[in-house]
Amino acid sequence: MDDKTVHQHVLDELEYAPMIDAAQIGVTVENGIVTLTGHVRNYAEKGIAERVVLRVRGVRGVVERIEVRYPNCPIVGDEALAERCARVLAWDVQIPENAVTLKVEKGCVTLDGCVPFYHQKAAVDQALRRLAGVTDIVNLIAVKPLAQATEVKSRILAALRRSARDPDTIRVHVDGDKVTLDGCVDVWSEREIAERAAWSAPGVRAVEDRLTLA
């Protein structure tokens, strides 16, 4: 698919997506790589725009340069934002108590610590992304290894069989707590399915995605 067609499809998908003001987002495409510029109203909208683009056929990758600008919202100081983030994490039952520490600098929240499962690491990100004042999140939380390689691989393959249309085109290699996905998929959404399956297995701390579009 040529870049001109991909560009139009990306614009149409952004325009169709809820919660996104597509008029404020610029799009360029070169060799299937989409660059997003402009600004959005909050950090959550920034993530939505990236996910929307990745599901368009022909998109090989995204370079995200979107700025967060909170409309009609007073500037939140770093100290106040850090206190707000800490309270949100303390209230979230998915996140183990005292497992995560955070630092805030100019609205950018850096997370550190260690949790047993990847979904708990993701839950921290989800809990903070809608807070006013957050301009970026750097998630450095580690995941403790809990499972054997054979168990991790069997869980991933089972999830792929439930979700992907042709899981036999995807190869899974487990080395300790790292999972490597190889092979090819028909659409980008199947690549996302494979990644989610890998990250949802207990003990996985890193996923290398080498999948290509057929």
From TrEMBL:
<dbReference type="InterPro" id="IPR014004">
    <property type="entry name" value="Transpt-assoc_nodulatn_dom_bac"/>
</dbReference>
<feature type="domain" description="BON">
    <location>
        <begin position="77"/>
        <end position="145"/>
    </location>
</feature>
<dbReference type="Pfam" id="PF04972">
    <property type="entry name" value="BON"/>
</dbReference>
<dbReference type="InterPro" id="IPR051686">
    <property type="entry name" value="Lipoprotein_DolP"/>
</dbReference>
<feature type="domain" description="BON">
    <location>
        <begin position="2"/>
        <end position="70"/>
    </location>
</feature>
<feature type="domain" description="BON">
    <location>
        <begin position="148"/>
        <end position="214"/>
    </location>
</feature>
<dbReference type="InterPro" id="IPR007055">
    <property type="entry name" value="BON_dom"/>
</dbReference>
<protein>
    <submittedName>
        <fullName>Osmotically-inducible protein OsmY</fullName>
    </submittedName>
</protein>
